[in-house]
Write a structure and sequence with these properties.
There is one protein chain. The protein is of the alpha/beta class. It is 29% helix and 11% strand. 43% of the residues are buried.
Length: 280
Amino acid sequence: MKNFQTLISARELAAMLGDSQLIVVDVRHDLGDHQLGPRKYAEGHIPGAHFLSVETDLAGPHTGKNGRHPLPSVDAFVATMSALGVDATKQVVAYDSGTSTYSARLWWMLRWLGHRNAAVLDGGFRAWEAAGLPISTDIPVRKPAQFVPKVSDSPVDVDTLAQHRGEPDFTLVDARGADRFRGENETIDPVAGHIPGSVSRPFTTNLNKDQTFKDSATLRAELEQMLAGMNPGQIVHTCGSGVTACNNLLAMEHVGLRGSRLYPGSWSEWSSDPARPIAK
């Protein structure tokens, strides 16, 4: 089986269905309706796909100070992946409704623990349906495996960011919409604004109208313009809660701009402490 480590098309995925080394994961989700994902999965999903919840499987317990989607512990995520059947030999493909935000979160989390053969379905379930590919309501049997973590893509924590914010190697790129970045129309987090020194790169900028990623040449040129001569390793991606930021990180990795990092707590964690500065 060919290995995919960033994006995979609907047709490429369809050709792999049924391979014992493939694990497909449905992570469709809605921030305003946490039951939308399970409902959509029950109505129909890619044949053989398993469902994981963004709120529980891809996030840890909330403390009120660690953001809306804190990372689960390494042990908890290892247990989730092992139960799903993921081990070093498996190709994982994640998909969401289409924007590649929630699927990119799972993609990044697998890379965080050293699993590189993980990809995002370009255009998500929307692209799968548009291609006229089969849909199933069958729930596949899980065959547990032993997922062995090898922590590699270390996230940036809030204390490190607070200490180094403003330094060139901690250049912040915010994936939220431009209005929320400016502190306007904030409907998700109690405090509006952004981390001082951040630059705005809405994740939607990476996508075509059909929610697939732009062609690599166009995307790379846009991202290089954003970098303005900086090394990708100097970039720390943020958003509202460490989810949509993964789309920007995936876009950079896909076009060969490798080495940027994620601040998982993002705005929802940063803004939970009134002592931390904010900007609008």
